[in-house]
Amino acid sequence: MTSFHDLHHGADPLLIPNAWDFASAAMFAQAGFAAVATTSLGVAAVAGKPDAAGATRAETAALARGLARLPVPVSIDLEDGFSADPGEVGALVAELASYGVAGVNLEDARGDAGHHAAVVRAVKEAAPGVFLNARTDTFWLGEPDLPETLRRVAAYQDAGADGVFVPGIADDADIQAVLDTARVPLNVLHLPGRTSLPRLAELGVKRVSTGSLLYRAALHAAVGTALELAGRPSLPMPSYADVERLLRP
């Protein structure tokens, strides 16, 4: 099996589907994808909890233990690490590494960049073999901020991140600016109608994630099948916000 690190340095971007339970991940692996990741929204939704609220540490760790036995590398979305203590985040990643997890995704949610850099350092010290994808939400939350994105990308790679993830970025010029700053592989989120794998490959993007898209598509297909059986018209595919509204008390 090709190492997870090596998959980020191929001629083509690593297209990595995001699963939400063991069956979805196993199906992606069976379909021939070289690696599988998780979606924090999907994992939270399966548990009936809101995403990005730090409420699914136990569920995420339990799923990671099961997914680690798949025949492909697995990366786990850890939201912000489920703790404000960098040491605790490092200990969690070391635990996942002991299961056989190959990578983790850790987001800054536009919080303090210095703190997130400290988390990156703690994780790399605790689990040096795990591919740490450092996510910045400078394009995902609020107005896109390219200068701040570049500052954070530089800080996280200097702290030891193996890759950087900028969800929401789509314009060629913005992507190129990040690529000019990044010395590590860049991960972007597939945005239907805004990004294409061939163009991202031309630019030099090394990893493309699906985020919550596949989970939401699965919900859409299931509800659509039920509505069809009932002789009722289908509904639009739910957005991230639509699913989140179901999970909030």
UniProtKB/TrEMBL annotation:
What Pfam families does its record include? PEP_mutase
Recorded superkingdom: Bacteria
Q: Name one GO molecular function term.
A: catalytic activity
Recorded hits in InterPro entries, A to Z, give: ICL/PEPM (IPR039556), Pyrv/PenolPyrv_kinase-like_dom (IPR015813), Pyrv_kinase-like_dom_sf (IPR040442)
This one is known as: Isocitrate lyase/phosphoenolpyruvate mutase family protein
From which lineage does this chain's organism come? Bacteria, Bacillati, Actinomycetota, Actinomycetes, Streptosporangiales
